[in-house]
Amino acid sequence: AQRVTQPEKLLSVFKGAPVELKCNYSYSGSPELFWYVQYSRQRLQLLLRHISRESIKGFTADLNKGETSFHLKKPFAQEEDSAMYYCASGSGNTGKLIFGQGTTLQVKP
Amino acid sequence: EPEVTQTPSHQVTQMGQEVILRCVPISNHLYFYWYRQILGQKVEFLVSFYNNEISEKSEIFDDQFSVERPDGSNFTLKIRSTKLEDSAMYFCATESSGTRNYNEQFFGPGTRLTVL
């Protein structure tokens, strides 16, 4: 079965420090991978998707098929990056998203 | 900017009662989804809906659950006879038309369902 794993429940860093939120997936086909973010009291929103190969708010994520990973990185964390981050995988033709458990990023001043 | 809306924001019900959760999609969107998140757990897919029929449903989505888009606007999730374990946050998500290559899903703010 398709699965997404985010091993860290909480990641706490100081402002200006590098951030890496880990995500591993299991999927036999070609995965569609996303990072969604939920800021405090806000709704889930798309941060970035692997197919776009873009950088959003300084975040990037590279698909590594050999390691089946899609880690989210940012070189210098900002306090406003504090949020819950979800890695998600799409499968099939129905648009279903499979989410990881989520990682809370806490950026301390 | 258009947003997905959901009502109610919080629903409290007795076990065995029927509940209907409502979602108003973004107007030109054609793909609709329900997800749920039990407190402290991950967001789980329930069902996807396109062209007035279910595209895919999860194991969670048993005979007690149904979805419909009765008036071409609202997208509803009905739970016929609620159980304690149905207590969760329910999210509606919608996606625009276009090629089926994983466009962005836009999420509603969620409905918190509490079953007593």
At the first level of CATH, the class of chain A is Mainly Beta
Helical residue percent band of chain B: under 10%
Task: Characterize the biggest β-sheet of chain B.
Answer: 7 strands, mixed
CATH architecture of chain A: Sandwich
Following the backbone from N to C, one meets helices and strands of chain A in this order, namely: EEEEEEEEEEE
Low-confidence stretches of chain A: none
State the separation between the terminal residues of chain A, measured CA to CA: 41 Å
Which fold does the CATH topology of chain A refer to? Answer: Immunoglobulin-like
Structural class of chain A: mainly beta
Structure description:
The complex is a heterodimer of chains A (109) and B (116). Chain A is an all-beta fold. Chain A has one domain (3-108): Immunoglobulins (Immunoglobulin-like), CATH 2.60.40. Chain A is 0% helix and 44% strand. Chain A starts with a strand and ends with a strand. The model of chain A has no long low-confidence stretch (mean pLDDT 91). Chain B has a single domain (5-97, 104-110), classed as Sandwich (Immunoglobulin-like). Chain B has strands at residues 5-7, 10-13, 19-24, 29-37, 43-50, 53-57, 65-68, 75-79, 88-96, 105-107, 111-115. Chain B is mainly beta. Chain B contains no helices and 11 strands. Helix content of chain B is 0%, strand content 53%. At the A-B interface, strand 5, strand 6 and strand 10 of A face strand 4, strand 5, strand 9 and strand 10 of B.
